[in-house]
TrEMBL record:
It catalyses: beta-D-fructose 6-phosphate + ATP = beta-D-fructose 1,6-bisphosphate + ADP + H(+). It comes from Cyprinus carpio carpio. Pathway: Carbohydrate degradation; glycolysis; D-glyceraldehyde 3-phosphate and glycerone phosphate from D-glucose: step 3/4. PANTHER family: ATP-DEPENDENT 6-PHOSPHOFRUCTOKINASE (PTHR13697:SF56), PHOSPHOFRUCTOKINASE (PTHR13697). InterPro entries: 6-Pfructokinase_euk (IPR009161), ATP_PFK (IPR022953), Phosphofructokinase_CS (IPR015912), Phosphofructokinase_dom (IPR000023), PKF_sf (IPR035966). The lineage of its organism: Eukaryota, Metazoa, Chordata, Craniata, Vertebrata. GO terms for cellular component: 6-phosphofructokinase complex; membrane. This is 6-phosphofructokinase. Keywords: Allosteric enzyme, ATP-binding, Cytoplasm, Glycolysis, Kinase, Magnesium, Membrane, Metal-binding, Nucleotide-binding, Transferase, Transmembrane, Transmembrane helix.
Amino acid sequence: YVSVYVRYHSKMYTFEIDKSKFLKICAIIMHLYLLYCISGMNAAVRATVRVGIYTGAKVYFVHEGYQGLVDGGDNIRQATWESVSMMLQLGGTVIGSARCQDFRSKEGRAKAACNLVKLGITNLCVIGGDGSLTGANEFRNEWSELLQILLKAGKITAEEAKRSSHLNIVGMVGSIDNDFCGTDMTIGTDSALHRIMEVVDAITTTAQSHQRAFILEVMGRHCGYLALVTALACGADWVFIPEMPPDEGWEDHLCRRLTYQRSIGNRLNVIIVAEGALDLHGKPITCDIIKNLVTKKLGFDTRATVLGHVQRGGTPSAFDRILGSRMGVEAVMALLEATPNTPACVVSLSGNMAVRLPLMECVQVTKEVTTAMAEGRFEEAVKLRGKSFENNWNTYKLLAHVTAPDVKSNINIAILNVGAPCAGMNAAVRSAVRIGILQGHNMLAVHDGFDGLANGTTESSGWSLPASMIEEISLNIAKFNIHALVIIGGFEAFVGGLELVTAREKYEELCIPLVVIPATVSNNVPGSDFSIGADTALNTITTTCDRIKQSAAGTKRRVFIIETMGGYCGYLATMAGLAAGADAAYIYEEPFGIHDLETNVEHLLEKMKTTVKRGLILRNEKCNANYTTDFLFNLYSEEGKGVFDCRKNVLGHMQQGGTPTPFDRNFGTKMGAKAVLWLTDKLKECYRHGRIFANTPDSACVLGMKKRAMIFQPLSDLKEDTDFEHRIPKTQWWLKLRPILKILAKYKISLDTSETATMEHVIKKRGTV
């Protein structure tokens, strides 16, 4: 007997297996089924293959989906580590996809079962939508019956039937529509949003030049997620989605809305339509219907664009690559734990956590959404879509189709950006200002951060507020009668907010509610798992790494050393390493010495002696004062002589620029809106004796994303979890993903991510999140 040990989620799994039968029985075999070719699936394929091999299993590709499973032969081929190299940046799927009528019949499924039994395959990893996952579950449920059919026909032996007595299944959801209930995001959705926003941004410029109205149809036959998030991200004038048809008389309302926008000086109008949009009577609302309405009734120069399958293609976003990689790892772990009594599960994303859900519960709830829409229960349909969809819809309703109230609140709220700029800040400012105006508040824009709040100067003040500046700030708060502050920025904003709270004892004018919205490419603000701007920077790094690797096409073996930003925070280096397929990522949070460097160099040398031709090393800018980027470049260059040569790149401030990603626009929009709504409630609590007086810890908070929800945490409570010297939180969730990065780079280490992904239930999850 041999013992197999796998450590995962702080638990050790032990398998005692007959050595002679090890490869046949213990093998975790993956069937990759891809009905639609969408971006991000190759990342899931790559992670599943490599982690499967890491556990000691044989892994097989099934080419052309279920059709390949039925046909067998060369369609089912063993995968190797090298067979999934250089595929992260590719859209679609490298193993093909096809619809299969044969699999719908029992005869066809019996053929598929026979092909699996002959190869000793008893575990399937299925990637697809609810239809393909339902088919996989049906296949599993009738597995014993199929074996009996094959036995009677003499196509398999009794020994083969005994060896393959049960079938385990785990699913990963791949769909750009994000229409599968139980997960916040499906693989491919974020990449589709990137394609859509690229088109929207391009159209916006021409629309402004010609004063045109543009109508864009996006995919979403039964789900309006793409349309809804696009409308939030671009500030569309109107959105049509299947889950919430417009009220009766929407035509007049739409025309009034467009007319008003033109009257206040807007030179363009943007209307987003999901392809499955309907009115209250179930009649389709199409681009042509809207175009004819706007043209005839308003006389506006109007254009309609149907994006079509362009949304399915292109390079996967960094988010989809990381999501696919994490789901692939979790899928293998789910199969390792599976028993004959374990229900088929689907691995999904909740907040930033990987979770496992019963497959058929998710399918059932997904079908309930369709039923609710068909029966006119639209509010329920929105809720069934999940908390993420519901939050997006509620934010859209807050920002659209609403006019400012006639009665003012006499409340002044000041908004200021602090520290280095980052993509997505404008989205937070825009939504905060609009929500404030809709609440009847007077919204004040403070230019030049804390300096502007203190004395109107434009010079940088550093990241700590001097005592004289705090005094000036208190005087200007009184002068401008400011009742609340929204501070948008990075670690400087966090520390500045803390110092304002500390100074409340001395300056009564500072006893006002304030909220800090994390916005920095470094993603180093305590109290939040994500910061506005980090996703844009991450995509910039990932895209640049792709181009750098491609630049060496046709040359000999080459290793690239790339330096990223982040200060002492290694978030960008680590996540870009996962997204770009790095061989190593050096960060401050994980100290390393000369022996570690020696191990990394030797490991890369061995890889480069095979068919691998590209190496990628990422280094966080402040990971080590002595092992600089130049040092690493010289080390790898010297040790790689005769095997590979090296190039180095310092990406610099290009990581802070660029057009915000859909995630950062959407995240910033929701954060800005939520912050001002919280301040509005807090101002009511703090109104005493005719004035605002806020001196409790919970009146000064950081608004952050923690695991599954946006929450407010008092600044004072976060001091204990902050390393002020290095400007990072003491606990950072993404450090648990670093073992995945190393395993996918072929290091032989223990896989321990410590966050337990246990089986949850969709109904319970919908009610508590």
